[in-house]
Amino acid sequence: MGWPDPLTLAGRFATLRPLAASHHDGLCEAARDGELWRLWYTAIPSPEGMAQEIERRLGLQARGSMLPFTVFDAGDSGSVGSSGGGRIVGMTTYMNIDATNRRVEIGSTWYAAATQRTALNTQCKRLLLGHAFEALGCIAVEFRTHRLNTQSRRAIERLGAQLDGILRAHMVMPNGSVRDTAVYSITATEWPTVRAHLDWQLARPR
């Protein structure tokens, strides 16, 4: 078996299940909510490209460099686009897996527009971080995003992650522009404080 192995992670607001080809239609519907693929500073699959993106992620999983998940809204069971309970609302992954140094990146994440700025993202990160530090024994978990993606950067910072630095002219985007990448991380020694912060965020009245 690999490191980490496929598994389901469940919380009050979200459930993460191993990505499967059967999730295709629900993921297409989620991407249509906000036409997310039109955002120039990120790479979110269009409905027409969803099958290829699922195949790409599962291929990386087979090679041991990614563990992809489909995100389900745990508070929206039985809705259109649901599969196995709860509406499909996006994708996330463990990526750039480094078993030797016990590091993973949480990334390639996107959510339907209706679920953005809700408790769902906090829940997903709490589940992924908890498993990484408490089950996998990671020494650090990394996050990366476009320097100009201020919404993503603020969300990462609200988790309690620290900015490690900016990788300038790091990669070429699908539209041909060159991305500066902001790199953040949370270390194992920081996790107890971050965990308390996330648990408070999830427990507070809404």
Explain how this protein is built.
- By secondary structure, this protein is α+β, with helices and mostly antiparallel strands.
- The chain has a single domain (9-203), classed as Gcn5-related N-acetyltransferase (GNAT) (Aminopeptidase), CATH 3.40.630.30.
- The chain contains five helices and eight strands.
- It has helices at residues 24-32, 50-62, 119-134, 150-159, 191-203; strands at 9-10, 14-18, 66-73, 87-98, 103-111, 140-146, 162-172, 178-187.
- An eight-stranded mixed sheet has the order 1-2-3-4-5-6-8-7, sandwiched between helices.
- Helix 3 packs antiparallel against helix 5.
- The relative contact order is 0.15.
- Residues 77-84 have low confidence and may be disordered.
Concise description?
With 206 residues, the chain is of the alpha+beta class. It has helices at 24-32, 50-62, 119-134, 150-159, 191-203; strands at 9-10, 14-18, 66-73, 87-98, 103-111, 140-146, 162-172, 178-187.
Number of helices: 5
Shape: globular
* Distance between the ends: 40 Å
The run of helices and strands is EEHHEEEHEHEEH
Structural class: alpha+beta
Q: Supply the CATH class.
A: Alpha Beta
For the report, how would you describe the main beta sheet?
8 strands, mixed
Q: Give the mean pLDDT.
A: 90
| Strand order in the sheet with the most strands | 1-2-3-4-5-6-8-7
**Percentage of β-strand residues:** 25-35%
Q: What's the total count of β strands?
A: 8
Poorly predicted runs of 5 or more residues: 77-84
Q: Which architecture does the CATH hierarchy give at level 2?
A: 3-Layer(aba) Sandwich
What is the CATH topology? Aminopeptidase
Question: What percent of the residues sit in helical stretches (DSSP H or I)?
Answer: 25-40%
Instruction: Give the tally of structural domains.
Output: 1
Compute the CA-based radius of gyration: 16 Å
What's the CATH H-level homologous superfamily?
Gcn5-related N-acetyltransferase (GNAT)
